[in-house]
Design goal:
It is a multi-pass membrane protein. This protein is mainly α. It contains 11 helices and 2 strands; from the N terminus they run ββααααααααααα. Helix 2 packs across helix 4.
Length: 263
């Protein structure tokens, strides 16, 4: 429709006996959708500001999103002195940052998972990562359901077509298929979060697949965070024991889907 921002006009031109499809793309969000996006960003910013203002006066120049292991180790060294005395503030700040990164597809959540293990240990770290990752994925799901359709169509048209076909073929075993996607790298988790509401994956299926499917990787990453000082690269996260564990869990998860496909 000509008056809307975000429509894609498709014109069919005929030449040499063949149809040629020409796409004329405009900016994929309306002003109202941009407003919703802005409100969500402002909410996260206010939450972080509240956490910052309730922390003791100090030099917080070390506070930034870690992009490598060196940044992460510096952040861990500073936060350790605050975690015991300001546990609630650190927890809230961690959750807000992780959920924000998941919601807006900002890379680097693997470093946040390592930080959880380093600061809180394996059990509490895994629980924290599973909670924040699920909350962030859910936030991304609902935001995409509200305003994400034009973005998904413009950014990942081929993947979206593939995903929609696979979901349509597996309606009776959709939870198994979504678990399969979460455990394996068939499709990026970021794409799954954004595209699921577009291809009509029910939220309860999305939720349970996310909660269960991210536990293995969360355990591996959080456990590695305990020995953060010994890591030389992100590739060191996956030793033979970790790989074998993920493989077995993935095999158990995928088996019902494979049996269903064969039948």
């Amino acid at each position: 429709m000509e008056g809307e921002v975000g429509t894609s006009l498709k014109c069919e031109m005929k030449g040499n006996g063949k149809g040629v499809v020409v796409n004329e793309s405009k900016f994929p969000l309306s002003f109202w959708e941009i407003g919703v996006f802005g409100v969500v960003v402002l909410s996260y910013a206010l939450s972080l500001a509240f956490v910052y203002l309730t922390m003791p006066a100090s030099d917080y120049s070390f506070l930034k999103l870690p992009r490598n292991l060196q940044d992460l180790q510096i952040l861990r060294d500073h936060l350790e002195s605050y975690t015991s005395d300001y546990t609630i503030q650190v927890l809230v700040g961690y959750c807000v940052v992780y959920i924000f990164m998941q919601t807006f597809m900002i890379p680097g959540t693997v470093f946040m998972s390592l930080l959880a293990g380093s600061l809180f240990g394996v059990f509490r770290g895994v629980a924290l990562v599973v909670f924040t990752a699920t909350a962030g994925a859910s936030s991304c799901y609902f935001l995409s359901k509200l305003i994400g359709r034009p973005l998904v169509f413009s950014l990942w048209p081929d993947k979206l077509t593939f995903f929609r076909d696979q979901v349509a073929r597996r309606k009776t075993r959709l939870l198994n298929y979504m678990l399969f996607l979460r455990v394996t790298p068939t499709l990026p988790n970021t794409f799954i979060n954004v595209a699921s509401p577009i291809v009509d994956v029910p939220y309860h299926t999305f939720f349970f697949a996310t909660v269960i499917g991210i536990i293995p990787a969360a355990y591996v990453t959080v456990r590695a965070g305990i020995i953060l000082g010994e890591l030389q690269s992100v590739g060191d996260l996956y030793d033979m024991h970790s790989i074998a564990t993920l493989f077995l869990i993935g095999l158990v998860t995928v088996t019902p889907t494979l049996i269903g496909n064969k039948n």
